[in-house]
Specification:
The chain is α/β, with parallel strands linked by helices. The protein is built from five helices and nine strands; from the N terminus they run αβαβαββαβαββββ. This is tRNA (guanine(46)-N(7))-methyltransferase.
């Protein structure tokens, strides 16, 4: 459902419309579009976003899936408050913010997810194992990796868990920026995106 701040049904909210905190990472608009597309959302999807950061993905999903529910998990109290403020900015009411460390806090969640987005994490293998137990059959999972070590950890976990229909992509995006009197293309930090399905 469109908001006054973003009166469109398509995702892709400009980054500068979100409130931010210094040093807190944010999924850039172009990367966000890729992540959301790999989730293959349905109108009533229950989505867990683990490591929700600024809250850009919960806000986008909340707007395009008004009948769905988003659980945004964030360990830092100040950042969790930021997610709530960004939801309020866009009038998103179907996002619940959980303050806690994954995987420990996952046991307290009562709504089993049909979609899970994991944006990094120090204990990615353990998080993936716990999420896999909760993920509904025919559910989808995506995980991002910013370095080769994380890529290897996620790939190994996907193999151990027997994730099906795995897709792997690396974003390579550039944005036009003005620097002085010149316009130049600047790279958006590349990440790996791994996605797959739980058959049963």
């Amino acid at each position: 459902m469109p908001s006054q701040l973003w009166p469109y049904v398509s995702p892709g909210i400009p980054d500068d419309l979100f409130e931010r905190l210094p040093g807190i990472p944010m999924s850039k608009r172009e990367v966000r579009l890729l992540l959301i597309s790999y989730l293959r959302l349905q109108s009533d999807s229950v989505v867990w976003d683990i490591g929700a950061g600024t809250g850009t993905i919960p806000v986008e999903i909340g707007l395009i899936c008004p009948q769905g529910r988003v659980i945004a998990i964030e360990r830092d109290q100040e950042v969790a408050s930021l997610i709530r403020r960004n939801c309020n900015r866009f009038g998103v009411e179907n996002v619940t913010v959980i303050e806690g460390n994954a995987p420990e806090c996952l046991d307290s969640l009562t709504d089993a997810p049909s979609r899970v987005c994991i944006e990094g994490g120090r204990y990615i293998k353990v998080i993936l194992q716990e999420v896999w137990k909760k993920l509904l059959p025919q559910g989808r999972i995506i995980a991002t990796a910013a370095n080769l070590e994380s890529l290897y950890a996620v790939s190994e976990s996907f193999a151990d868990l027997q994730v099906r229909n795995i897709e792997v992509a690396q974003s390579a995006l550039n944005r036009l920026e003005t620097r002085g009197v010149y316009q130049t293309f600047a790279a958006v930090n590349p990440i790996f995106i791994l996605s797959g399905e739980k058959i049963n």
